[in-house]
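Retro notes, item 3 of 5
We never archived the inputs for the pyridoxal-5'-phosphate complex last cycle. Fixing that now. Sequence and ligand:
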Amino acid sequence: MSDVKNLRLASRIIHAGQRTCPLTGAVATPIYQTSTFAFKDTDEGAARFGGTDPGYKYTRLGNPTVAALEECIADLEGGCGALAASTGMAAVHTVYFSLLGAGAHVVGTDALYGASRMILEKEYSRFGVTGSFVDTSDAGNVEKAMRPETKLVFVESPANPTLKLCDIAAIAEIAHRHGALLAVDNTFATPLLQRPLELGADVVLHSMTKFLNGHSDVVAGVVVAKDPVLFARLRSVHVNVGPTMDPHQAWLVFRGVKTLGLRLEKAQANALEVARFLEAHPKVSWVRYPFLPSHPQHDLARRQMSGGGAIVSFGVKGGLDAGRTLMNSVKLATLAVSLGGVETLIEHPASMTHASVPRAEREKAEITDDLVRIALGCEDALDLCEDLEQALAKA
Ligand SMILES: Cc1ncc(COP(=O)(O)O)c(C=O)c1O
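Structure as it came back at the time:
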């Protein structure tokens, strides 16, 4: 299918970027496992490097399998182009390295994914980059943190693992008024549930390790930009610095993306059911899920997202020790970091994914020691609730 523009999102997931091979008729996009591409003569080689011939030259600079995936994700996010990256952190690095120079300031969500915050504080700080990490669930905090040298506002919504939301449209307006760009990590929501570029963001990025690939078998990332000039800047950094994607990796993710709609529908239904089950359980002290009426930003969730996603955070009465017993007692859920796969995973952010954030900062960001994060997969909801029931009985 060459023109997917008029299709609905659920159909575009399957057809965007997908082309029948003109040589063989292969329906699945082939894996072009090659590092380089032959030119028919020196003029063609020169034209490709000169930019007058769009053909392929060298896989770091572009590859047909990777391009199919990039076209798909750019289409799903409504961007002008996408850059597939070897990991989600490679995508984050491409955004930082493209947009920040010496002395630049970043305003970020306080509960940003641990490494996204850590590389700013520990690595980019060597070049004079500073960061203010604030509770972006209140857009007023973003306004207060802006400085003349702020170049980038970087938010996660829902945030990992607190599931706090940002009002993306309000924050985009603040960023732009101060001459900064807004990047949104859309890993938790996916383009199916939340559309940051339509809400005013300039850049969207994902750890495709999670929902987009969906099978816990690949690490991958992607950056999508709205504006062609910004995209050209990001692309230049990406292909020259080189955190690009391998064709085989791209083929796996492209294959995974096709079932995103089906997987997310099931995982999200499971999340709502598990969230309701936990909320009613006497051993659970609190539950956060965007589509539960008890979520403090439930109205924003309903306005900004078309579904609550597949992650639930909760606290067990008895704090960390009780949570530990629970996590060591589950039998169907797997104790592992990551999320967005077909299998349910459970983890303890304070000692695992967010251990690199100092305790005081963690607590300020409400990543409390009792917080347990469960990332729902596609199993039967009753089996998941029964598993949690037997584990909570031990906690
Ligand atoms: C929200 C979010 N962003 C970025 C990343 C980094 O992605 P990766 O592990 O694919 O490098 C993660 C990883 O867990 C994440 O959860």
